[in-house]
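ok so I'm stuck.
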Amino acid sequence: MGKYCDIVPHATGWVYVIDGVQSASYYHTYELAMEAAKAHVARDRSGRVETFRRQALNGEMLPIPPMPANADPSVLRRSFPA
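replied:
not stuck anymore, here's the structure
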């Protein structure tokens, strides 16, 4: 079974959750939460996160497709409303 990093809405913005542990901080936008989660995973280096997911309106966790390095970051803002 793969390990997940979930980006979910929070009363104060957005948070990421890894192995059931919520980020200590909250983030005002989805994009900031995603960047923080990626930075956390990069620092961790344990290889425990294989898939990033976001919470859909119905509560289902959907995989976030990897963005190519040369992609326009505004695509995230158009794809996932805050």
